[in-house]
Every structure is written in C-alpha cells, then in structure tokens.
TrEMBL record:
PANTHER family: GLYCINE BETAINE/PROLINE BETAINE TRANSPORT SYSTEM ATP-BINDING PROTEIN PROV, GLYCINE BETAINE_PROLINE BETAINE TRANSPORT SYSTEM ATP-BINDING PROTEIN PROV
Signal sequence range: none
Coiled-coil region list: none
InterPro entries recorded: AAA+_ATPase, ABC_osmolyte_uptake_ATP-bind, ABC_transporter-like_ATP-bd, ABC_transporter-like_CS, P-loop_NTPase
SMART domains with a match to the protein in the record: AAA
Keyword Transport: yes
Name this protein carries in UniProt: ABC-type quaternary amine transporter
EC assignment: 7.6.2.9
Length: 315
C-alpha cells in the first residue's frame, strides 16, 4: 500500500534521513520509533508532503506521492499531532467536521458524522457537541483530535507523538482508544513515538531508527526476540526500559482473548514476578493471566524461553 523507496533527506548538507526503505501494508498500525533526532517525524511528513525527500520516492497505491494532487492528498489523510490542534474559535462539532466541510459535505451530514464519532469515544453529543476546546481537559481534547482525523474516513492517518504530553493513565486510555478504533475501521496508521513500550503496545509493525538510519523493521515479537543491531538491543534493555508484565505480554508472550476457556487455571498478576512465581509453583502447561489490560492465554514454556532470550540479549 505504502512504500518508502531509498528515501533520503538533507538539510544544509547535513543528512537527516539516510537511504531508508520499508513497506507498510494496508491496515497496518506501523510505528516509527527511536530517540529524538532519529528522523521519525521527517519520514512521517514525507507521506503528506510536508517534507520532500532529497532522494528516493514515497509510493501510495503504486503511485508516487509527488504525483498526487496535494490538496486532495491532505484532505484524504488524517493527521493527529502532539497537541490536539483544535480550532479555538470552533465548537467540537465543527472542529470534528472541518475536513467534511472542505469536501463540500452538507451541514446536516457533517453534524451527524460528528455526533456519531463523539458517541464512539463515549462523549455524549448532547453534552459535548457545542462545547469549545478550552472547556475540555487535555485528554478530552486529544480524543476529539483523534476522531477529527477519522471524520472523513481516510485510508491513512498520521499520528506524530500524539500522547507524549499526557499523564500515564490518560495516555494508556487513549492508546486503548486508538487500538479499538483502528481495529474497527481497518485504517492504516503511521504512528511516531520515542517510547519503545508504546511502540510494542501499539504496533503491528515497528521500524526502529537511529540518526536517520533504519535499524530494523519487524513485528513486536521479532524486535524483542531477534534484535538486528546492537542499538536495537540496547534500546530495549537499556535507557531505563523496564519489562513490566504488560510490556512482555504486549510484546507477544501471551495471546490476548476476550473470553478464556473454563478449564484453564487463572492467575491474576500485576507484575512479571507474580507470573514467574505462578509458573514455578504450578505444573499447568497453559493458563490464563488476568491483568488490568485483559486476559491472556500463556504457555508455560514460552515464559521460560522468554527469560532465556532476555538473558542472551543482555549478554
């Protein structure tokens, strides 16, 4: 669906992106992750032509991005920034429907769509539709920013560090919201973050960057279990990254389920150590882990294999 083909970007003779290539499949939640200055946002902006590659090309549906009509490309692409960027002079209903207005959609249909999206994120339209942005909390503003990006039903949404300014509780709530909405809509999302835990939690595919160089592209499981470079390994196991229970489960240790089999033992765990203690004290080969984030079916052997791989990667 989307292809970055040997793209590079130079500013004043200083390279910031160096010969980067990767593919994004339709329906992917594709995460660009790396430290500050690694080129994540530069790559993101190449899709909607806020940045133009010095070399190489970005393709969308087999056609070069530079050959698309710029206005139509941007109208058909959702965009969510670190702050919600809501228009302060418009109420929420009109903020959400702004792209629909630009597309010439009738006012009644615009407002119907805005109310539908407010309900989708548990914001009662009767209570919120006429409110102004300054009447909302930061988390509420970002919810509106997210559904505004969905209003025109775009095939692609760009999200640039959308949750980095929020507190951990609200951040996790909005992560869950995006995951739920993306699952429902099957929208392709390119998501920028500097947080490896967030990358593991959100991404179906992850691209790791350092100093404009692509280090690795893979699933969360591949990134954890088979780091391609020393940097990728250290990015996970250094710099204060902690393997919490949820980080491990999000990285592929267990399979999340909506309802587990009644014949499997259940352990409620908040820490990785509690899961390990359960494995040590029980003989069950498969069991259900109940966490604050839901239920996971876990294979005991997978737990031991994970610990072995973790120690090997630390070596």
């Amino acid at each position: 669906m989307i292809r970055y083909d040997h793209v590079a970007k130079t500013y004043s003779s200083v390279p910031v992106i160096r010969d980067v290539s990767f593919d994004i499949d339709e329906g992917d939640l594709f995460v660009l992750v790396g430290p500050s200055g690694s080129g994540k946002t530069t790559l993101l902006k190449m899709f909607n032509r806020l940045t133009v590659p010095t070399e190489g090309n970005v393709y969308y549906q087999g056609k070069k991005i530079k050959d698309y009509d710029l206005q139509q490309l941007r109208l058909q692409t959702g965009y969510v920034l670190q702050d919600s960027s809501l228009f302060p002079n418009l109420n929420l209903q009109d903020n959400i429907a702004i792209q629909l207005e630009q597309q010439g959609i009738a006012k009644t249909k615009r407002h119907q769509r805005a109310c539908e999206l407010l309900r989708a994120v548990d914001m009662d339209p009767e209570k919120y539709a006429q409110r102004m942005p300054n009447e909302l909390s930061g988390g509420e503003q970002q919810r509106v920013g997210i559904i505004r990006a969905l209003a025109a039903k775009p095939a692609v949404i760009l999200m640039d560090e959308p949750f980095s300014a929020l507190d951990p509780v609200v951040r996790r709530q909005l992560q869950d919201l995006v995951l739920r909405l993306q699952k429902q809509t099957k929208t392709t999302i390119i998501f920028v973050t500097h947080d490896m835990h967030e990358a593991l939690r959100m991404g179906t595919k992850i691209a790791v960057l350092k100093d404009g160089v692509l280090q690795q592209v893979g699933t969360p499981q591949e990134i954890i279990n088979q780091p391609a470079t020393k940097f990728v390994k250290e990015f996970f196991y250094g710099h204060g990254f902690q393997f919490s229970l949820n980080a491990v489960l999000d990285g592929g240790l267990g399979k999340k389920v909506s309802a587990a089999s009644d014949d499997l033992p259940v352990v409620t765990a908040k820490k990785l150590e509690e899961l390990l203690a359960f494995c040590r004290d029980r003989q069950a080969q498969r069991f259900v882990v109940q966490t604050d984030d839901g239920q996971y079916i876990v294979n005991q052997q997978d737990v031991w294999n994970y610990l072995i791989r973790r120690e090997e990667n630390r070596a």
